[in-house]
């Protein structure tokens, strides 16, 4: 069980700074996922922890010891790459045992470790095969098994599922989660796929342009994003984000004026005043299709996706960008039809002009006025 800490870690290539003073604490036994768009620095940060990249500034601390000048081979970590990097001329058994043989470990111990890992990963029947005789998922299991037999302080995964097809990725996600439950070890996992992040992580670290935008449990990030970047990145489909201006409401509250025609009533909100420009966000499942007299806005249906158990509507309100509406079950609607939409206030997100959160959910205007 290993604790990993980054203290104001910087990384630059010449004059170009790519990691900007990151502070991070990975507790022992946690499954931490680094997620973010391509080029955000997540793989670079993982390589810094592994010892494959030197830091320009700051400290990497493993179990209380600064390891800035400790080589990758001496840090006691195991890394699983996007590429399986298996030796094609060796059997599965030899691929898993090779590193241990080089460390002069006794053969009986090597055999016990390889067979235990193979049993855990359900690859025992393939121990005498070579990699070319394996499927992609089986090869990835071998690469993970090669890491397990080393009994490392922590596991580092760099987009290990990105070469697999969609169905196999789902299956391997379940296997990785089960593996973490069995081993209980510290794991850091890099992905650009936020669905992987949501389903695997104890803690998600959202990176953008070499900085941490937010870190927390998957549901903390989903329910309480701290800025528009996290709001738009976490969730599939993504949160609907629209711009509006704040005006006085007829009932003493506030209204959001969006697209020039849509007026969305709010109660008084701390940090929000008439004249402010804001971005409001609402997730697809939090848009209700209602009668016109209860609606906050109306929209034209551009496209529908009927998935059997659920339906996605892609709609365009007048003066606003296209939004996504999620409905459970089969919702019959034709392209070009108008739908009337109401935003659930308790899950409505408000962000200031600087992109930072003002509120994650507000009371219903009627309830707020009644309480007053």
TrEMBL record:
It is found in: Cell inner membrane. This is sn-glycerol-3-phosphate ABC transporter ATP-binding protein UgpC. It is a peripheral membrane protein. The keyword ATP-binding applies. It comes from Roseitalea porphyridii. InterPro entries: AAA+_ATPase (IPR003593), ABC_transporter-like_ATP-bd (IPR003439), ABC_transporter-like_CS (IPR017871), ABC_transpr_MalK-like (IPR015855), ABC_transpr_MalK/UgpC-like (IPR047641), Mo/tungstate-bd_C_term_dom (IPR008995), NA-bd_OB-fold (IPR012340), P-loop_NTPase (IPR027417). GO terms for cellular component: ATP-binding cassette (ABC) transporter complex, substrate-binding subunit-containing; maltose transport complex. Residues 4-234 form the ABC transporter domain. Gene3D superfamilies: 2.40.50.100, Nucleic acid-binding proteins, P-loop containing nucleotide triphosphate hydrolases. Belongs to the ABC transporter superfamily. GO terms for molecular function: ABC-type maltose transporter activity; ATP binding; ATP hydrolysis activity. Keywords: ATP-binding, Nucleotide-binding, Transport. Pfam families: ABC_tran, TOBE_2.
């Amino acid at each position: 069980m290993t604790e990993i800490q980054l203290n104001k870690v910087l990384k630059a290539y010449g004059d170009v700074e790519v990691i900007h003073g990151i502070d991070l604490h990975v507790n022992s036994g946690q499954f931490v996922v680094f997620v973010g768009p391509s080029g955000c620095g997540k793989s670079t940060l993982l390589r810094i922890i592994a010892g494959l990249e030197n830091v320009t500034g700051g400290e990497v601390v493993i179990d209380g010891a600064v390891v800035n000048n400790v080589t990758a081979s001496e840090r006691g970590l195991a890394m699983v790459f996007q590429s399986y990097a298996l030796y094609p001329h060796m059997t599965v058994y030899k691929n898993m045992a090779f590193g241990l043989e080089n460390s002069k470990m006794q053969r009986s111990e090597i055999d016990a470790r390889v067979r235990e890992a193979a049993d855990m990963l359900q690859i025992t029947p393939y121990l005498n095969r070579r990699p070319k005789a394996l499927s992609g998922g089986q090869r990835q299991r071998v690469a993970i098994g090669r890491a397990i037999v080393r009994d490392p302080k922590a596991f580092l995964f760099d987009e290990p599922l990105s070469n697999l097809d969609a169905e196999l990725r789902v299956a391997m996600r379940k296997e990785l989660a089960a593996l973490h439950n069995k081993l209980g070890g510290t794991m850091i996992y890099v992905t650009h796929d936020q669905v992987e992040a949501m389903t695997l992580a104890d803690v998600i670290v959202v990176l953008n342009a070499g900085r941490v935008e937010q870190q927390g449990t998957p549901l903390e990030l989903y329910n309480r994003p701290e800025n528009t970047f996290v709001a738009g990145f976490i969730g599939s489909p993504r949160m609907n984000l629209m711009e509006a201006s704040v005006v006085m409401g007829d009932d003493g509250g506030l209204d959001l004026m969006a697209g020039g025609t849509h007026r969305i009533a709010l109660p008084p909100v701390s940090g929000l005043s008439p004249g402010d420009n804001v971005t409001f966000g609402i997730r697809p499942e939090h848009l209700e299709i209602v009668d016109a007299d209860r609606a906050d806005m109306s929209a034209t249906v551009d496209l529908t996706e009927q998935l059997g158990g659920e339906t996605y509507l892609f709609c365009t309100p007048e003066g606003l960008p296209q939004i996504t509406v999620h409905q459970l079950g089969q919702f019959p609607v034709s392209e070009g039809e108008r739908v009337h939409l109401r935003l659930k206030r308790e899950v409505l997100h408000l962000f200031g002009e600087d992109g930072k959160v003002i509120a994650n959910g507000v009371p219903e205007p009627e309830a707020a006025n009644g309480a007053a």
